[in-house]
Amino acid sequence: MEKNTIIELKIEDYTTEGFGVGHAEGMAVFVKDAVIGDELKVKIVKNKKTYAYGRIEEILRPGADRVAAPCPSARACGGCQLQMTAYPAQLRWKEDKVRNCLQRIGGFKVPPTGEPAEASKNAADTQTCPASEGAADTQACLAEAGGYDLDAFLPVIGMEEPWHYRNKAQLPVRADKEGRPVAGFFAGRTHSIIEQKDCRIGQKDNQEVVDLVLGWMQQQKIAAYNETTGSGLIRHICMRSGYATGERMVILVLNRRESVLGKHLGRKLEALADQLMKLEGMTSVILNYNAEKTNVIYGRSFETLRGRDVIEDTIGEVRYQISARSFYQVNPIQTQKLYAAALEYAGLTGKEKVWDLYCGIGTISLFLAQKAKEVYGVEIVPEAIEDARKNAALNGITNAQFYVGKAEEVLPKLRREQGIEADVIVIDPPRKGCEEIVLQTMLDMAPERIVYVSCDPATMARDLKILCGGDYHLSRVQPVDMFPHTTSVENVCLLTKKHGMEIKG
Ligand code: SAH
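A: This is the predicted complex of the input protein with S-adenosyl-L-homocysteine.
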Protein backbone atom coordinates (compact mmCIF):
# COMPACT_ATOMS: atom_id res chain seq x y z
CA MET A 1 0.00 0.00 0.00
CA GLU A 2 1.58 3.24 -1.15
CA LYS A 3 1.57 6.31 1.05
CA ASN A 4 -1.38 8.61 0.26
CA THR A 5 -3.44 5.73 -1.19
CA ILE A 6 -7.10 5.95 -0.22
CA ILE A 7 -8.65 2.67 0.92
CA GLU A 8 -11.92 1.52 2.42
CA LEU A 9 -11.55 -0.04 5.84
CA LYS A 10 -13.79 -1.63 8.48
CA ILE A 11 -12.58 -1.21 12.08
CA GLU A 12 -12.48 -4.47 14.06
CA ASP A 13 -10.52 -3.77 17.23
CA TYR A 14 -8.46 -1.22 19.22
CA THR A 15 -4.75 -1.19 19.94
CA THR A 16 -3.52 -0.55 23.47
CA GLU A 17 -2.89 3.05 22.38
CA GLY A 18 -6.55 3.32 21.35
CA PHE A 19 -6.08 3.28 17.57
CA GLY A 20 -8.79 1.53 15.57
CA VAL A 21 -7.51 -1.54 13.72
CA GLY A 22 -8.75 -2.78 10.35
CA HIS A 23 -7.25 -5.11 7.75
CA ALA A 24 -6.57 -4.38 4.09
CA GLU A 25 -4.45 -6.32 1.62
CA GLY A 26 -3.40 -8.67 4.40
CA MET A 27 -2.04 -5.82 6.52
CA ALA A 28 -3.18 -4.30 9.77
CA VAL A 29 -4.02 -0.63 9.36
CA PHE A 30 -4.09 1.57 12.49
CA VAL A 31 -6.39 4.60 12.46
CA LYS A 32 -6.63 7.28 15.15
CA ASP A 33 -10.12 8.26 16.38
CA ALA A 34 -11.76 5.28 14.67
CA VAL A 35 -14.48 3.27 16.40
CA ILE A 36 -15.09 -0.48 16.15
CA GLY A 37 -17.71 -1.11 13.42
CA ASP A 38 -16.86 2.09 11.52
CA GLU A 39 -16.67 1.76 7.75
CA LEU A 40 -14.18 4.38 6.70
CA LYS A 41 -12.43 5.94 3.78
CA VAL A 42 -8.85 6.07 5.01
CA LYS A 43 -5.72 7.72 3.62
CA ILE A 44 -2.49 5.79 4.23
CA VAL A 45 -0.08 8.15 5.97
CA LYS A 46 2.71 5.78 6.97
CA ASN A 47 3.60 2.43 5.52
CA LYS A 48 5.72 -0.19 7.29
CA LYS A 49 6.35 -3.70 5.98
CA THR A 50 3.65 -5.50 7.88
CA TYR A 51 1.36 -2.69 9.00
CA ALA A 52 0.33 0.83 8.09
CA TYR A 53 -1.11 3.96 9.66
CA GLY A 54 -4.10 5.68 8.12
CA ARG A 55 -6.07 8.87 8.69
CA ILE A 56 -9.85 9.11 8.46
CA GLU A 57 -10.87 10.88 5.23
CA GLU A 58 -14.55 10.12 5.52
CA ILE A 59 -16.82 8.09 7.76
CA LEU A 60 -18.83 6.07 5.23
CA ARG A 61 -20.96 4.30 7.83
CA PRO A 62 -20.39 4.96 11.55
CA GLY A 63 -20.17 1.92 13.82
CA ALA A 64 -23.29 1.22 15.92
CA ASP A 65 -21.40 2.27 19.07
CA ARG A 66 -19.93 5.52 17.76
CA VAL A 67 -21.01 8.49 19.89
CA ALA A 68 -20.06 12.18 19.88
CA ALA A 69 -17.27 12.71 22.42
CA PRO A 70 -18.65 14.82 25.28
CA CYS A 71 -15.30 16.58 25.68
CA PRO A 72 -14.45 19.04 22.88
CA SER A 73 -10.73 18.34 23.46
CA ALA A 74 -11.04 14.54 23.36
CA ARG A 75 -9.31 14.10 19.99
CA ALA A 76 -6.44 16.52 20.58
CA CYS A 77 -5.85 15.54 24.21
CA GLY A 78 -5.61 11.80 23.69
CA GLY A 79 -6.09 11.14 27.41
CA CYS A 80 -9.44 9.43 26.76
CA GLN A 81 -8.81 7.28 23.70
CA LEU A 82 -12.26 5.67 23.74
CA GLN A 83 -14.54 8.67 24.36
CA MET A 84 -16.07 8.20 20.92
CA THR A 85 -17.14 4.67 21.82
CA ALA A 86 -20.36 4.29 23.86
CA TYR A 87 -19.54 3.21 27.43
CA PRO A 88 -21.31 -0.19 27.33
CA ALA A 89 -19.33 -1.00 24.16
CA GLN A 90 -16.09 0.05 25.88
CA LEU A 91 -16.88 -2.44 28.65
CA ARG A 92 -17.66 -5.21 26.16
CA TRP A 93 -14.36 -4.57 24.40
CA LYS A 94 -12.44 -4.70 27.69
CA GLU A 95 -14.09 -7.97 28.66
CA ASP A 96 -13.24 -9.44 25.24
CA LYS A 97 -9.66 -8.25 25.54
CA VAL A 98 -9.21 -10.07 28.86
CA ARG A 99 -10.91 -13.20 27.51
CA ASN A 100 -8.66 -13.18 24.42
CA CYS A 101 -5.50 -12.82 26.51
CA LEU A 102 -6.54 -15.70 28.76
CA GLN A 103 -7.26 -17.88 25.72
CA ARG A 104 -4.41 -16.93 23.41
CA ILE A 105 -1.58 -16.20 25.84
CA GLY A 106 -2.67 -18.26 28.84
CA GLY A 107 -4.06 -21.19 26.83
CA PHE A 108 -7.12 -21.30 29.14
CA LYS A 109 -10.51 -22.57 28.05
CA VAL A 110 -12.71 -19.74 29.31
CA PRO A 111 -16.41 -20.35 30.07
CA PRO A 112 -19.10 -17.91 28.92
CA THR A 113 -19.22 -14.78 31.07
CA GLY A 114 -21.20 -15.34 34.26
CA GLU A 115 -21.27 -16.42 37.90
CA PRO A 116 -19.75 -19.81 38.88
CA ALA A 117 -23.18 -21.36 39.31
CA GLU A 118 -24.05 -20.54 35.72
CA ALA A 119 -20.74 -21.88 34.51
CA SER A 120 -21.13 -25.14 36.39
CA LYS A 121 -24.56 -25.65 34.83
CA ASN A 122 -22.54 -26.26 31.73
CA ALA A 123 -20.77 -29.15 33.38
CA ALA A 124 -21.46 -32.24 31.32
CA ASP A 125 -21.88 -34.57 34.24
CA THR A 126 -21.94 -33.23 37.79
CA GLN A 127 -21.83 -36.82 39.10
CA THR A 128 -18.15 -37.01 38.17
CA CYS A 129 -17.29 -34.38 40.78
CA PRO A 130 -17.81 -35.52 44.38
CA ALA A 131 -18.59 -32.63 46.71
CA SER A 132 -16.74 -34.24 49.62
CA GLU A 133 -13.25 -33.32 48.46
CA GLY A 134 -13.64 -29.66 49.38
CA ALA A 135 -15.50 -26.87 47.66
CA ALA A 136 -12.56 -25.56 45.65
CA ASP A 137 -11.71 -28.94 44.15
CA THR A 138 -15.36 -29.61 43.34
CA GLN A 139 -15.51 -26.28 41.50
CA ALA A 140 -12.36 -27.15 39.58
CA CYS A 141 -13.73 -30.55 38.67
CA LEU A 142 -17.04 -29.05 37.52
CA ALA A 143 -15.24 -26.54 35.35
CA GLU A 144 -13.17 -29.27 33.79
CA ALA A 145 -16.16 -31.54 33.27
CA GLY A 146 -17.80 -28.62 31.44
CA GLY A 147 -14.74 -28.39 29.23
CA TYR A 148 -13.42 -25.22 30.88
CA ASP A 149 -10.32 -24.35 32.89
CA LEU A 150 -11.94 -21.60 34.98
CA ASP A 151 -14.88 -21.81 37.38
CA ALA A 152 -16.03 -18.38 36.31
CA PHE A 153 -15.18 -15.48 34.07
CA LEU A 154 -17.13 -12.66 35.67
CA PRO A 155 -18.74 -9.71 33.88
CA VAL A 156 -16.57 -6.59 33.96
CA ILE A 157 -17.43 -4.20 36.79
CA GLY A 158 -18.05 -0.84 35.15
CA MET A 159 -18.97 2.53 36.63
CA GLU A 160 -22.56 3.67 36.93
CA GLU A 161 -21.48 7.21 36.17
CA PRO A 162 -18.20 6.89 34.25
CA TRP A 163 -17.22 10.58 34.49
CA HIS A 164 -15.31 12.82 36.89
CA TYR A 165 -13.66 9.86 38.57
CA ARG A 166 -10.02 10.96 38.74
CA ASN A 167 -8.91 12.26 42.14
CA LYS A 168 -5.69 13.70 40.75
CA ALA A 169 -4.95 16.24 37.98
CA GLN A 170 -1.61 17.66 36.86
CA LEU A 171 -1.96 20.49 34.37
CA PRO A 172 1.03 22.17 32.74
CA VAL A 173 0.85 25.98 32.58
CA ARG A 174 2.36 27.82 29.62
CA ALA A 175 1.72 31.06 27.73
CA ASP A 176 -0.45 30.90 24.61
CA LYS A 177 0.33 32.79 21.39
CA GLU A 178 -0.98 36.04 22.88
CA GLY A 179 1.16 35.55 25.96
CA ARG A 180 -1.86 34.71 28.15
CA PRO A 181 -1.24 32.00 30.75
CA VAL A 182 -3.22 28.82 29.99
CA ALA A 183 -3.43 25.41 31.66
CA GLY A 184 -4.16 22.32 29.67
CA PHE A 185 -2.27 19.54 27.96
CA PHE A 186 0.49 19.20 25.43
CA ALA A 187 -0.69 18.77 21.84
CA GLY A 188 0.42 15.39 20.49
CA ARG A 189 4.15 14.95 21.03
CA THR A 190 4.83 18.69 20.99
CA HIS A 191 5.29 21.08 23.86
CA SER A 192 2.75 23.58 22.64
CA ILE A 193 -0.15 23.69 25.01
CA ILE A 194 -3.85 23.34 24.30
CA GLU A 195 -6.10 24.97 26.84
CA GLN A 196 -8.46 22.60 28.55
CA LYS A 197 -11.54 23.45 30.49
CA ASP A 198 -13.71 21.12 32.52
CA CYS A 199 -11.94 17.81 31.92
CA ARG A 200 -14.73 15.21 31.84
CA ILE A 201 -12.83 12.63 33.87
CA GLY A 202 -11.34 15.06 36.40
CA GLN A 203 -13.08 16.59 39.42
CA LYS A 204 -15.69 19.19 38.51
CA ASP A 205 -14.30 21.73 40.97
CA ASN A 206 -10.76 21.64 39.53
CA GLN A 207 -11.68 24.39 37.11
CA GLU A 208 -12.28 26.96 39.88
CA VAL A 209 -8.72 26.36 41.09
CA VAL A 210 -7.31 26.77 37.59
CA ASP A 211 -9.35 29.94 36.98
CA LEU A 212 -8.22 31.41 40.29
CA VAL A 213 -4.52 30.70 39.67
CA LEU A 214 -4.56 31.91 36.06
CA GLY A 215 -6.51 35.06 37.04
CA TRP A 216 -3.98 35.76 39.79
CA MET A 217 -1.10 35.31 37.32
CA GLN A 218 -2.60 37.85 34.96
CA GLN A 219 -3.38 40.31 37.71
CA GLN A 220 0.03 40.04 39.35
CA LYS A 221 1.88 39.75 36.03
CA ILE A 222 3.35 36.39 37.00
CA ALA A 223 4.72 34.60 33.94
CA ALA A 224 4.08 31.01 32.99
CA TYR A 225 7.12 28.75 32.65
CA ASN A 226 8.83 28.79 29.27
CA GLU A 227 10.84 25.64 28.75
CA THR A 228 12.86 27.01 25.83
CA THR A 229 14.25 29.97 27.73
CA GLY A 230 13.91 28.45 31.19
CA SER A 231 12.12 31.63 32.33
CA GLY A 232 8.74 32.21 33.98
CA LEU A 233 7.46 30.96 37.33
CA ILE A 234 4.42 28.67 37.26
CA ARG A 235 5.08 25.24 35.73
CA HIS A 236 2.16 23.08 36.82
CA ILE A 237 -1.08 23.25 38.76
CA CYS A 238 -1.67 19.90 40.46
CA MET A 239 -4.80 18.96 42.36
CA ARG A 240 -5.69 15.99 44.56
CA SER A 241 -8.84 15.20 46.47
CA GLY A 242 -10.19 12.67 48.93
CA TYR A 243 -13.33 11.06 47.58
CA ALA A 244 -14.78 10.04 50.93
CA THR A 245 -13.64 13.10 52.89
CA GLY A 246 -14.00 15.86 50.28
CA GLU A 247 -10.57 17.20 51.31
CA ARG A 248 -8.67 19.01 48.59
CA MET A 249 -5.01 19.83 47.96
CA VAL A 250 -3.43 22.20 45.43
CA ILE A 251 0.25 21.93 44.56
CA LEU A 252 1.80 24.78 42.55
CA VAL A 253 5.03 23.79 40.86
CA LEU A 254 7.38 26.78 40.65
CA ASN A 255 10.38 27.22 38.40
CA ARG A 256 12.61 28.15 41.34
CA ARG A 257 15.03 26.68 43.72
CA GLU A 258 13.60 27.00 47.20
CA SER A 259 16.09 29.52 48.49
CA VAL A 260 15.55 32.18 45.84
CA LEU A 261 11.87 32.95 46.41
CA GLY A 262 12.01 36.64 47.48
CA LYS A 263 9.78 38.23 50.11
CA HIS A 264 7.74 40.12 47.56
CA LEU A 265 6.84 37.04 45.56
CA GLY A 266 6.35 35.09 48.76
CA ARG A 267 3.65 37.52 49.85
CA LYS A 268 1.86 37.33 46.53
CA LEU A 269 1.84 33.56 46.74
CA GLU A 270 0.48 33.68 50.27
CA ALA A 271 -2.34 35.94 49.12
CA LEU A 272 -3.16 33.41 46.39
CA ALA A 273 -3.03 30.57 48.91
CA ASP A 274 -5.50 32.45 51.14
CA GLN A 275 -7.87 32.75 48.20
CA LEU A 276 -7.51 29.04 47.41
CA MET A 277 -8.16 28.08 51.04
CA LYS A 278 -11.58 29.74 50.80
CA LEU A 279 -12.70 27.18 48.22
CA GLU A 280 -14.98 24.51 49.61
CA GLY A 281 -13.07 21.53 50.98
CA MET A 282 -9.61 23.05 50.44
CA THR A 283 -7.30 21.83 53.20
CA SER A 284 -3.77 22.15 51.71
CA VAL A 285 -1.92 24.59 49.50
CA ILE A 286 1.58 23.38 48.77
CA LEU A 287 4.50 24.76 46.77
CA ASN A 288 6.93 22.57 44.92
CA TYR A 289 10.25 23.88 43.67
CA ASN A 290 11.53 22.57 40.37
CA ALA A 291 14.15 24.62 38.50
CA GLU A 292 15.41 21.69 36.43
CA LYS A 293 15.04 21.42 32.66
CA THR A 294 13.04 18.23 32.79
CA ASN A 295 9.67 16.71 31.98
CA VAL A 296 9.44 15.37 35.51
CA ILE A 297 6.70 17.37 37.19
CA TYR A 298 7.92 17.65 40.77
CA GLY A 299 11.24 18.84 42.10
CA ARG A 300 12.52 17.37 45.32
CA SER A 301 11.39 20.03 47.74
CA PHE A 302 7.82 20.71 48.89
CA GLU A 303 6.66 23.46 51.24
CA THR A 304 3.23 23.62 52.80
CA LEU A 305 2.01 27.20 52.46
CA ARG A 306 -1.40 26.76 54.06
CA GLY A 307 -3.17 23.88 55.80
CA ARG A 308 -1.83 20.35 56.24
CA ASP A 309 0.92 18.39 54.45
CA VAL A 310 -1.56 15.64 53.59
CA ILE A 311 -5.16 15.04 52.69
CA GLU A 312 -7.07 12.03 53.95
CA ASP A 313 -9.30 9.56 52.20
CA THR A 314 -10.87 6.29 53.24
CA ILE A 315 -11.34 3.06 51.34
CA GLY A 316 -13.79 0.82 53.15
CA GLU A 317 -12.87 1.16 56.82
CA VAL A 318 -9.24 2.14 56.26
CA ARG A 319 -8.00 5.75 56.42
CA TYR A 320 -5.13 6.84 54.22
CA GLN A 321 -3.03 9.99 54.43
CA ILE A 322 -1.91 11.15 51.04
CA SER A 323 0.97 13.58 50.67
CA ALA A 324 1.63 15.64 47.54
CA ARG A 325 3.98 13.01 46.19
CA SER A 326 2.37 9.75 47.40
CA PHE A 327 1.08 7.19 44.96
CA TYR A 328 -2.63 6.61 45.44
CA GLN A 329 -5.17 4.88 43.22
CA VAL A 330 -6.77 7.53 40.97
CA ASN A 331 -10.29 6.09 40.77
CA PRO A 332 -11.49 5.71 44.36
CA ILE A 333 -14.95 4.36 43.48
CA GLN A 334 -13.59 1.47 41.42
CA THR A 335 -10.66 0.89 43.77
CA GLN A 336 -13.10 0.02 46.51
CA LYS A 337 -14.77 -2.55 44.25
CA LEU A 338 -11.42 -3.99 43.17
CA TYR A 339 -10.21 -4.34 46.75
CA ALA A 340 -13.53 -5.80 47.87
CA ALA A 341 -13.10 -8.54 45.25
CA ALA A 342 -9.48 -9.10 46.33
CA LEU A 343 -10.59 -9.36 49.97
CA GLU A 344 -13.39 -11.79 49.11
CA TYR A 345 -11.00 -13.96 47.08
CA ALA A 346 -8.44 -13.96 49.89
CA GLY A 347 -11.12 -15.77 51.95
CA LEU A 348 -9.70 -14.62 55.29
CA THR A 349 -10.92 -15.94 58.64
CA GLY A 350 -8.46 -14.14 60.93
CA LYS A 351 -5.94 -17.00 61.13
CA GLU A 352 -4.00 -16.40 57.93
CA LYS A 353 -0.51 -15.25 57.15
CA VAL A 354 -0.84 -13.08 54.07
CA TRP A 355 1.85 -11.70 51.76
CA ASP A 356 1.08 -8.63 49.67
CA LEU A 357 3.71 -8.34 46.94
CA TYR A 358 4.17 -5.02 45.07
CA CYS A 359 2.20 -3.43 47.89
CA GLY A 360 2.78 0.27 47.07
CA ILE A 361 1.65 2.39 50.05
CA GLY A 362 0.04 -0.70 51.54
CA THR A 363 -3.50 0.03 50.45
CA ILE A 364 -4.35 -3.63 49.87
CA SER A 365 -2.20 -4.81 52.80
CA LEU A 366 -4.09 -2.65 55.29
CA PHE A 367 -7.41 -3.62 53.77
CA LEU A 368 -6.48 -7.30 54.30
CA ALA A 369 -4.90 -6.77 57.74
CA GLN A 370 -8.34 -6.16 59.23
CA LYS A 371 -9.29 -9.78 58.50
CA ALA A 372 -5.92 -11.62 58.64
CA LYS A 373 -3.57 -12.75 61.40
CA GLU A 374 -0.45 -11.20 59.86
CA VAL A 375 0.18 -9.27 56.66
CA TYR A 376 3.61 -8.78 55.08
CA GLY A 377 3.99 -6.19 52.32
CA VAL A 378 6.89 -5.97 49.86
CA GLU A 379 7.54 -2.89 47.72
CA ILE A 380 10.51 -1.47 45.83
CA VAL A 381 9.93 2.27 46.55
CA PRO A 382 11.15 3.20 50.06
CA GLU A 383 8.89 6.28 50.33
CA ALA A 384 5.86 4.13 49.59
CA ILE A 385 6.82 1.83 52.46
CA GLU A 386 7.17 4.87 54.73
CA ASP A 387 3.60 5.81 53.77
CA ALA A 388 2.46 2.23 54.35
CA ARG A 389 3.89 2.22 57.88
CA LYS A 390 2.38 5.62 58.67
CA ASN A 391 -1.02 4.50 57.39
CA ALA A 392 -0.84 1.31 59.45
CA ALA A 393 -0.18 3.41 62.57
CA LEU A 394 -2.94 5.87 61.64
CA ASN A 395 -5.41 2.97 61.62
CA GLY A 396 -4.03 1.28 64.72
CA ILE A 397 -3.07 -1.72 62.58
CA THR A 398 -0.31 -3.65 64.32
CA ASN A 399 -0.37 -6.91 62.38
CA ALA A 400 1.19 -5.55 59.16
CA GLN A 401 4.92 -5.49 58.43
CA PHE A 402 6.59 -4.00 55.40
CA TYR A 403 9.79 -4.80 53.54
CA VAL A 404 11.57 -2.50 51.08
CA GLY A 405 13.05 -4.26 48.06
CA LYS A 406 12.39 -6.06 44.83
CA ALA A 407 9.84 -8.83 45.21
CA GLU A 408 12.13 -11.10 43.15
CA GLU A 409 14.91 -10.60 45.70
CA VAL A 410 13.10 -10.18 49.01
CA LEU A 411 10.73 -13.14 48.72
CA PRO A 412 13.27 -15.85 47.71
CA LYS A 413 15.77 -14.52 50.26
CA LEU A 414 13.30 -14.56 53.15
CA ARG A 415 12.15 -18.01 52.13
CA ARG A 416 15.72 -19.29 51.99
CA GLU A 417 16.87 -17.65 55.21
CA GLN A 418 13.76 -17.63 57.37
CA GLY A 419 11.57 -20.29 55.82
CA ILE A 420 8.62 -17.91 55.66
CA GLU A 421 5.14 -19.27 55.09
CA ALA A 422 1.95 -18.01 53.50
CA ASP A 423 -1.69 -19.02 53.59
CA VAL A 424 -2.61 -16.41 51.04
CA ILE A 425 -0.44 -14.40 48.64
CA VAL A 426 -1.78 -11.28 46.98
CA ILE A 427 0.20 -9.77 44.10
CA ASP A 428 -0.35 -6.53 42.22
CA PRO A 429 2.66 -6.22 39.92
CA PRO A 430 3.40 -3.38 37.47
CA ARG A 431 2.57 -3.79 33.75
CA LYS A 432 5.44 -6.13 33.00
CA GLY A 433 4.05 -8.69 35.41
CA CYS A 434 6.10 -10.95 37.73
CA GLU A 435 9.66 -12.20 37.39
CA GLU A 436 9.64 -15.96 37.01
CA ILE A 437 11.50 -16.40 40.30
CA VAL A 438 8.63 -14.68 42.12
CA LEU A 439 6.15 -17.13 40.55
CA GLN A 440 8.43 -20.05 41.37
CA THR A 441 8.87 -18.96 44.99
CA MET A 442 5.10 -18.61 45.31
CA LEU A 443 4.66 -22.13 43.97
CA ASP A 444 7.24 -23.37 46.51
CA MET A 445 5.49 -21.53 49.36
CA ALA A 446 2.27 -23.28 48.30
CA PRO A 447 -0.37 -20.97 49.84
CA GLU A 448 -4.01 -22.14 49.76
CA ARG A 449 -4.93 -19.13 47.65
CA ILE A 450 -3.22 -16.68 45.35
CA VAL A 451 -5.00 -13.44 44.46
CA TYR A 452 -3.50 -11.89 41.34
CA VAL A 453 -4.40 -8.22 40.78
CA SER A 454 -3.24 -6.96 37.41
CA CYS A 455 -3.24 -3.85 35.24
CA ASP A 456 -2.13 -5.72 32.13
CA PRO A 457 -4.15 -8.74 30.97
CA ALA A 458 -1.39 -9.97 28.63
CA THR A 459 1.34 -10.34 31.25
CA MET A 460 -1.29 -11.57 33.70
CA ALA A 461 -2.30 -14.38 31.34
CA ARG A 462 1.37 -15.32 30.86
CA ASP A 463 1.93 -15.49 34.64
CA LEU A 464 -1.33 -17.36 35.34
CA LYS A 465 -0.27 -20.01 32.83
CA ILE A 466 2.93 -20.60 34.81
CA LEU A 467 1.08 -20.78 38.14
CA CYS A 468 -1.49 -23.17 36.70
CA GLY A 469 1.31 -25.26 35.21
CA GLY A 470 2.21 -25.77 38.88
CA ASP A 471 -0.32 -26.81 41.48
CA TYR A 472 -2.89 -24.07 41.00
CA HIS A 473 -6.34 -23.92 39.50
CA LEU A 474 -7.57 -20.62 38.05
CA SER A 475 -10.90 -20.23 39.80
CA ARG A 476 -12.14 -16.75 38.91
CA VAL A 477 -11.24 -13.80 36.77
CA GLN A 478 -12.96 -10.50 37.55
CA PRO A 479 -12.27 -7.57 35.19
CA VAL A 480 -12.74 -4.11 36.70
CA ASP A 481 -12.90 -0.87 34.74
CA MET A 482 -10.66 1.48 36.69
CA PHE A 483 -10.16 3.94 33.83
CA PRO A 484 -13.32 4.52 31.76
CA HIS A 485 -12.68 5.98 28.27
CA THR A 486 -9.15 4.59 28.15
CA THR A 487 -8.04 1.20 26.83
CA SER A 488 -6.73 0.00 30.18
CA VAL A 489 -8.43 -2.76 32.17
CA GLU A 490 -7.64 -4.18 35.59
CA ASN A 491 -8.35 -7.69 36.78
CA VAL A 492 -8.48 -9.57 40.01
CA CYS A 493 -8.05 -13.33 39.80
CA LEU A 494 -8.36 -16.13 42.32
CA LEU A 495 -6.12 -19.18 42.12
CA THR A 496 -6.69 -22.10 44.44
CA LYS A 497 -4.29 -24.89 45.32
CA LYS A 498 -5.13 -28.27 43.87
CA HIS A 499 -5.09 -31.09 46.40
CA GLY A 500 -4.22 -33.85 44.00
CA MET A 501 -7.81 -35.06 43.53
CA GLU A 502 -8.29 -37.28 40.49
CA ILE A 503 -10.33 -35.45 37.91
CA LYS A 504 -12.40 -37.76 35.79
CA GLY A 505 -13.08 -35.94 32.56
N1 SAH B 1 -0.94 -2.62 45.41
C1 SAH B 1 -0.71 -1.20 45.35
C2 SAH B 1 0.22 -0.72 44.21
C3 SAH B 1 0.28 -1.53 42.98
S1 SAH B 1 1.17 -0.76 41.67
C4 SAH B 1 -2.04 -0.48 45.32
O1 SAH B 1 -3.06 -1.07 45.03
O2 SAH B 1 -2.06 0.72 45.58
C5 SAH B 1 2.60 -1.76 41.57
C6 SAH B 1 3.65 -1.45 42.62
O3 SAH B 1 4.76 -2.32 42.40
C7 SAH B 1 4.22 -0.04 42.57
O4 SAH B 1 4.08 0.53 43.85
C8 SAH B 1 5.70 -0.24 42.22
O5 SAH B 1 6.54 0.70 42.84
C9 SAH B 1 5.96 -1.62 42.72
N2 SAH B 1 7.06 -2.38 42.10
C10 SAH B 1 7.50 -2.32 40.83
N3 SAH B 1 8.44 -3.23 40.60
C11 SAH B 1 8.63 -3.91 41.77
C12 SAH B 1 9.47 -4.99 42.17
N4 SAH B 1 10.31 -5.55 41.32
N5 SAH B 1 9.37 -5.42 43.43
C13 SAH B 1 8.50 -4.86 44.31
N6 SAH B 1 7.69 -3.84 43.99
C14 SAH B 1 7.74 -3.35 42.74
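Residues 327, 329, 358-360, 363-364, 378-381, 384, 406-408, 428, 430 surround S-adenosyl-L-homocysteine (CB under 6 Å). Residues 87-104 form the longest helix (18 residues).
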